[in-house]
Amino acid sequence: MKSLPIASFILASASLLTAGAYASSPSNSHSIVPDDIMHFESLKKPVVSDSGTMLAVEVAPDRGDSHGLVKSLTSSKKFTVDGGSKPKVSRDGRFVAFVVKNSLLDSEMASAKEKKKLKSGMVLLDTTSGIETRFERVKTFEFNETGTHLAVWFEAEEKEGDSKKTDKNADSKKKEQKSKQEKVDKFDKGTEFQLISLKNGYKQSVKNVTRFYFDKVGKHLVLASNDVKLKKHQLVSIKLNSNEKEIVRQYSDQQIGEVSLSEDGRYIAFTHGVAASAPYGREYKLSLLEIATGVVKPAPVNDEWKLNRYTTLRFSQDSNRLFFGRVPHVSQQLEIKKIENQADLFNEKIVTGQRELRIWHGDDARIKPNEVKQYKKEQERTYLAVLHLQGNNLVQLADEAVPDIELQEQSRFVIASSDIPYRKMITWAGFYRDYYLVDLNTGRKIPFLTQQPTNEAPNLSPKERFVSYYQQGQVYLYQISQDRRHNLTKDLKVSFADEDHDYPSNAPGYGFGPWLENDAGLLVYDKYDIWQMNTESLEAFKLTAGKGRKQGIQYRVTGLVEDENSPDLFAIDQQVLLHGYNEKTKGDGYYQAKIGVSGVTTLMEGDYKIKPLARSKDSNTLVFSKERFDLFPDLYTAEYSAPQAATRQTDLDAQKRKFNWSQSELVHWTNGDGQPLDGVLIKPTNYEEGKRYPVLVYFYRFMSDRLHAFPQMKLNHRPNFAWYADNGYAIFLPDIRFEVGYPGATSVQALTSGVQKLIEMGIADPDAVGIQGHSWGGYQTAFAVTQTHIFKAAVTGAPVSNMTSAYSGIRHGSGLARQFQYETGQSRIGESLFRAPQKYIENSPVFYAERIKTPMMIMFGDKDDAVPWEQGIELYLAMRRAGKDVVFLQYQDEPHHLKKYPNKLDYSIRMMEYFDHYLKGKPAPAWLTQGEAYTEYKKAD
């Protein structure tokens, strides 16, 4: 650990610069090249102190090392922290801590073995003095809730090893010494922990820490310190007001597991089990230690439920209940018996026990790949129980039939759910659950919702009188005490189902806003407006006065404090902030409404996109970004009630001002069926009226909402819009609206009519229109060129090319079958392959390969975890057999989206070269005319 002066301490005033200042192009501008994109910085993970006085954010280039930016919101102080990322801020804003990763250069220069040893560090910034304190090899760090202390938990110390080869005798001695040492399981190993008092800088360390926990009221810290080799297992308590450390419990034979503290400062809860047992099968016990007396009281036990190493502990905020997980049984992991003698070579059980076999049964709840992917999660699953502290009454809440519980701060009921009855049908029908109310006092489960789509979870009111839920186009209120349901929306003459839903499944709802205080009501969304529902009268009115639907503005409550323990509740007459998206102009705005009163007040709106990013807990400070295509999304802060008076806190738009920058505009047209469609046209930089340009079409589904989005300055699987525009391309982002059963044909209709519109506008060179898409966009790209010759070059990333073979494929990332995607999901066929084989054929590019006249480049990572990469091979082989112009880029060991930067850069460059050749007539690069021979390179030492 070392203390250093701050890398940069700047006193400067933050002024709100006008948007007009950014539109002008500097005289020294230069063309965008990949190096510019690699160095272009973005803002990540902004956080604001609970006091609303300090803002911290990570500033990250596309390639290279991040730095931290800290800005006082009450003075002109500003700090830059080298290497800083993922900031955390103390409650009062005086201290900011950042993760410090190893530099990219160090990482790139390290060998594979050295990379494994590289660990992140941490830097603590005192914003009063500007002093940095840096720490190395930090596992995690955390400020306590009141902001008085910082916990720094370190990685295990690196073992000293001799990198040089040793003789056989030395190796033999080392192995002998190692065998004599007691082997400690990784799960049981503790590491050094340091507690720092932020008031006076006092530091104290505890070794071999395996768990720690701060209470929320700032009184205590509790730690589990387990020194397995010395058989010293200690429960350590530290009083935060005096920094007094006390060993409150010590064992020689009990490994201490999880720890927690009650918020009233009365109890420490901890689990402990026999240290000599391997952690995998170790059974734990739960005990409560009364802090004032030091008396330890064991929790009730029974033979049906046990505690294991994955048990977590959580006290309720009122300190009346302790929640924790249990399992039906605990056992050690099975082992495969090894062959140890001659007889074992012919022992049938021992030999077959070493088989490598997975049996797929037709009645398995999950198909085997999904079961394998879920195995670790299921091993770590515990079933929630609650201990009522006053009566020492233990109640099991979840069980193997109803395993999942959403734990909030209610005192009588919790909502539980189970997907077990529907796990088999996930394969073809998607995800469903049954929902229950569980009585915290008795464990009784009350079923109230059956086969509900998983993404339509019900909502328990804070006072536990009601449950709200959406089902098949209607919003319901379940009155718990009377076991009565009310359809709140049946007479409202407006749809609460997604009006743009074009999938072969029931349309989802638009969701709920916050509850009102005392369960008096709740807010519900339709496509445009917000409705206030009264839980007593069951009457509803439009809080937004119907302006949303009249003006095409989608209103939603925004600017809420993110606190899962204390969700926002609204009072009658309370002013609330709304975010609005104008469907016609694609612009955003902030608006104000008053609970209980119908009407909306405009605070700010315009041709820009705004994103709420953070809200302070103890004040009304709101952090948001504001952007246009030609305006970087810098950070602004404002009072929650007055975002229109925001102060600009960052100026990363300065990067953009080094370049000429293009403009975006909205395009409207009508497709062949008379359906109106929207799209975004990004004009080339230095656009000349009347001149036709090469056009790159990029799309997925709805794209027009990106009209005012600043282009993502990254190199990845997408074309970089700023780069292409600066290289003389117009970029077109059309909306696609699908018809169930005919996704390919409806996509082609939208694409071709949109391109024809650009030709009619005099923008597009009809002989220089290219198309690029990835994943679902990749499929549409591949299909489109089998149906139209309007495109002169196509790049398709990770496309499904043959729906008949993809239908029964596997999503390797999740292990799920792909059938449900076609029957109810994105691929929109709506029927099984067996019932509608012709639809699968009609929508598959591979069956029409002979029709293709457009040169095509296919890209796949050969470890694609979403689309089987063999789909790319099928398309390549079909086009190759048909004698078509095709090239296939296989990026090794890459998933669905490229992760390795050399591959992202390479693909971006090749994509530009490809389009430059076919759309602008530039000479073809050698790899495109000749391919590249397979070569093996010398491996690094």
Please write out the topology.
Blueprint: E1 2-5, E2 8-11, H1 34-39, E3 41-48, E4 54-61, E5 67-72, E6 77-82, E7 84-89, E8 95-100, H2 104-109, H3 112-117, E9 121-126, E10 131-135, E11 138-143, E12 149-154, H4 168-180, E13 191-197, E14 203-214, E15 220-227, E16 232-239, E17 244-251, E18 254-261, E19 267-274, E20 284-290, E21 296-298, E22 313-315, E23 321-326, H5 348-353, H6 368-379, E24 383-388, E25 393-396, E26 404-406, E27 413-418, H7 426-429, E28 432-439, E29 445-453, E30 459-460, E31 466-471, E32 474-479, E33 484-487, E34 512-515, E35 521-525, E36 530-534, E37 540-542, H8 547-551, E38 553-557, E39 575-582, E40 588-594, E41 597-605, E42 609-615, E43 621-628, E44 631-639, E45 647-648, H9 653-656, E46 664-670, E47 676-682, E48 693-698, H10 721-726, E49 730-734, H11 743-760, E50 764-774, H12 776-787, E51 793-797, H13 803-806, E52 810-811, E53 816-817, H14 819-823, H15 837-842, E54 856-861, H16 870-881, E55 886-891, H17 901-920, H18 926-930
Parallel strand pairs: 48-49, 48-50, 50-51, 51-54, 54-55
Antiparallel strand pairs: 1-10, 2-6, 3-4, 4-5, 5-6, 7-8, 8-9, 9-10, 11-12, 12-13, 13-14, 14-15, 15-16, 16-17, 18-19, 19-20, 20-21, 22-23, 23-24, 24-25, 26-27, 27-28, 28-29, 30-31, 31-32, 32-33, 34-35, 35-36, 36-37, 38-39, 39-40, 40-41, 42-43, 43-44, 44-45, 46-47, 47-49, 52-53
